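## tool: complex_structure
## caller: assistant
## args:
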Amino acid sequence: MAQALVKHLAALRMEVEHLDGRTSIEPYCGGVFTIFGHGNVAGLGEALAAERDHLRTYRAHNEQTMTHAAIAFAKAQFRQRIMAVSTSIGPGATNMVTAAAVAHVNRLPVLLLPGDVFATRRPDPVLQQIESFGQGDVSASDCFRPVTRYFDRLTRPEHILTALPRAIQTMTDPANCGPACLSLPQDVQAMAFDCPEDFLNPGVLRFRRPPADERELANAIALLRGAKCPLIVAGGGVLYSQAWVALRAFVETHGVPVVESHGGKSSLPWDHPLNLGAIGVDGVSWANEMAREADVVFAVGTRLQDFTTGSHALFPQAQLLSLNVQPYDAGKWSGTALVADARVGLGQLETGLAGWAADAAWTDRAKQQAAAANARITELTTNVPKDMLPYDAEVIGAVRDSATELGLDSGQHDVALCAAGTLPAELHKLWRASLPGNYHMEYGYSCMGYEVAGGLGVKMARPDQESIVLVGDGSYMMANSELATSVMLGQKIIVVVLDNRGYGCIQRLQTATGSPAFNNLLDDCVPEGGERSSIDFAMHARSMGADAVHVKDVAELKAAMVKARQARRTQVIVIDTTHTRTTDGGCWWEVAIPEVSGRAGVREAHERYTQAQRLQRL
Ligand SMILES: Cc1ncc(C[n+]2csc(CCOP(=O)(O)OP(=O)(O)O)c2C)c(N)n1
Ligand SMILES: [Mg+2]
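## result:
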């Protein structure tokens, strides 16, 4: 059975569309990350060994992070190609559950192949079997059920004939796309069955592009035709549908400004005159200002999560039109739904929008706002030496500008990657991406520990680009061992560690909600008899085979980045940073404040909280 699985995977081909619109037929599965144990080494492991020349196997250091790498690979390829991830049973499998949730939230495909306990149950309980007293058919793999879009336990070998095609179908369905899990009892992996020849020669895969329903299209056109001050919120769906050319044409034809969610950033080049940049809690003030005034918000391919909508208080005045391939998203917030592929839907709208444009004054103002925002971003990201440590904005500027020294355009060349902490807000506002996918932010699950492994996945997907991981000290500490994998695989990444000695963003949130600073910064966490933490990140990175340097300021950082870009192996640059952040922009975000507290600060925060809630669209 495992042999049939691997042969099918190795034979799968996908019609892949490239950035320039060219298409080519590529292997669908970019390889298999696996950590072996008794649950997969003899069955799947033997099958992988036999197919090594057709399907690469990669060993990693942790099941969660190797899955992050696989997820990042798929995201960087706009979901058109995947990787498979195989684990043993028990801890190997459950280590992967968090990553499954990352893929689930972000609607990203990954084929999860955890080992499972014996289907025959003959040797039960095996090492690492959890044993449920009340449910005979439960195993550790059941943890995947709520965080996968397709789950199957293959208790007979011929199940692979239906289960694998269904898993592939799920991952190549634009609406349902997400992680698929085939849990593989170790005895079943090793069983023989009569496999039809055609299972080993599957046809070429394509993403389908569903068009809009006629009535929904007519409603959407009517709504837009009545709009004077429309605003497009571009989400990740624009990228996954590869709808950037259609979006740009739509925007320019109708004079509609665009704001970008984390998932949608890089839908338009940063310097497009109608790109206002980041919206929401991490948004630039110029974008949020126009969101507050728009009469129609046209959401394209976005989940409308709270960071995008300011917990539903940023644009409650606007009518909402939602173009999304997934009805669940299109129907959010009681908006007018337009269920379709983003690219196809934008094209279909044109059939009824001839002659319609936003008010000229609105479009002109958007252009002025976009220009003002970009000038301010230059200011914020240009380091002015002073008597204090630099902060994230200056680091971002130095990383970007180090490309210029080598005659490169950072916006074109670099993929910036991050997931959690202070940096997502800074990067959302300040990073400049000229090409789709050059901003790679996992801000669906915002999973600390995605960063280093994600950088590896991006490099494997986009070998000609620089994969630059910007990461806080906290996230680096949570998961960094795939740094050694990147060295071993010769997949160079550049990791910039911003060390502010703790969970800076959470401490900010803590004090903003009235609590005392507590249990976040390392220096606040040393009990009596404990020891002040001092982590030498550069030494740590060197111990894993990376080249690493601890720079003392932004000028040194820039010089180190120039060298890092020229280097061939993985580079880690560590810089001490302060807790300041960009105060421009942003908007309210709902975080629940205690109704009762002995602290005046909490009571005041609660008062502000209830005031702010009044602006929410319910
Ligand atoms: C796995 C996981 N655990 C907890 C959190 C909550 N969280 C978000 S950011 C953060 C601190 C990040 O610290 P660091 O990476 O140093 O970034 P900083 O805010 O200091 O810049 C925490 C604990 C999370 N996002 N992911
Ligand atoms: Mg930190």
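## assistant note: The chain has 25 helices and 21 strands. Residues 20 and 245 are 10 Å apart (CA to CA). Handing back to user.
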